# Entry
Amino acid sequence: MKRKREAPVTVTGTRPGDCHPLYTLGQIEIPGEHDARERSWALLEAAFADRQPSPRRSHWPRVAAVAVALSALLAAALSSPGRAVVEEIREVVGVERAQPALFSLPAPGRLLVASDAGVWVVQEDGSRRLLGDYREASWSPFGRFVVAARENELAALEPDGDVRWTLARPGARSPRWAGTETDTRIAYVDRTGIRVVAGDGTGDRLLVPGARGQLAWRPGARRELAYGSSQEVQVLDVDTGRVVWRAAHRPRLPVTGIAWSADGSRLLVLSRSALRVYGARGNLPYEVGPGADPFQAAGIAPNGRAAAFVQQGGGRSQLWIVPRIRPDGSAARRLFGGAGGFEDLSWSPDGEWLLVTWPAADQWVFARVDGRGIRAVSNISKQFRSGSFPRVEGWCCTH
Amino acid sequence: MRTARDERARVRGAQGGSVSDLEALFRTHWPRAYRAAYLVTHDAAAAEDIAQESFLAALRALDTFDRRRPFGAWLHRIVVNRAIDWTRARRLRSEIELSESLQTSERSEAPGEDVLAALAQLAPEHRAVVVMRYLLEFTPGEIADALGLPRGTVNSRLRRGLDTLGEEL
# Structure
């Protein structure tokens, strides 16, 4: 394209002597520009690394690197415990020096917890508020609202419990809220299948008839929803219904967990037999199992670069961390182990801490990702007025 | 000072697998891509996605990209078209209610705020034309080509946009 201009314009969009306000367009401060640039570069760099090599270049170095990395991972996952960064909790069930109550969270953010009494919001200072008699809930993308479900109702709530709207739907469950500050939507499952409704409660519609899978919205402006069934993982463009990508799920076991990284660059998919982390375009940069001990829970770091998972075997549970999700990355290392089963796993919004729930010990265990510390809290069921052990539904948000 | 020859060399390097050349292209063109997307959408998250998607689209087409064409103009054309599509598809949803009230009460007087506010008054199509002309420095002919519009339509949108902005500013 040949370009012809009447007057030279500088990189910032200003011209000497020109005071028209529009020439300040290049100088207006745009929120979050630096962070957005670095996130985008990380994604582009990863996509560039995943790009098909040109025909003249050999595939073998990359294949070998992937094979070596996967071997290391499998060895870590299948073998007896490797280097434990934190001292193993011996045969005692529970961390011995645990706090008797949740006095504070170790990192910024708020927790959403579901117990027999209903759904709770836990503030950073440890204070708790019961939102109402709901079975499950999740945060809106910026943590300003909560979407909650009970048997035949979906409800959008303020974090103080005020109800913004409700929608009567039979068997509503698994609500997930996503979007930008100006455009949000909620996906959920009811007896008809996977449905989508706008963030203001309007426009409810059936998206995938008969489907029952785990749901996860890709963060950001794209309206892409991932769901996992026993047979495959699909990412759908919700506006058009187009399948953006799909991946067969083998062995055919139900997907028990699915989550995008906060930057939308990675999708973690968990079943009892395997943990897989896909790239945003459906490539598979990381996999552990099948053949390993059963997986109980997993989570992906907010920046998408690390993952953590819980395995159960021989009456014990282990918390593992994968510091770098890359074919040339290091293997998983064990952060923490103990008798009985660990249940939920959540990353703190700042990516510095992991929260693991431990029903047999009636404890929550906060473990530093770098392995340099552990904090445990006892009497969890009592604090949330629950006969069964409370579930952690999400840890949100730093802003 | 960067030249068209430097840029062609970087495109060639990226086509050959050089991460540093790709990064140089990214760091040169991302700020304007993001800025243009933001000025059309007025939504930082959407702008990030749009700029990011546009670079990924460029990456997918890298092997077949004609190095005689200016990379930036090609990229920015993708960005603006995506930003217009996003803005048209946007529906106001409930989270805006709170954020808008906060923005109103906490609005700062940072440089360019008045221009940003005035720009928001324009229809997305007019906004895009103004951004392409005054930020990306496209000529009216190039804008017409990029948006698939008659040149007269571009000129009238530009004129009408500037008139509205003149009233607002």
Remarks:
- Chain A touches chain B through 59 residues (CB under 8 Å).
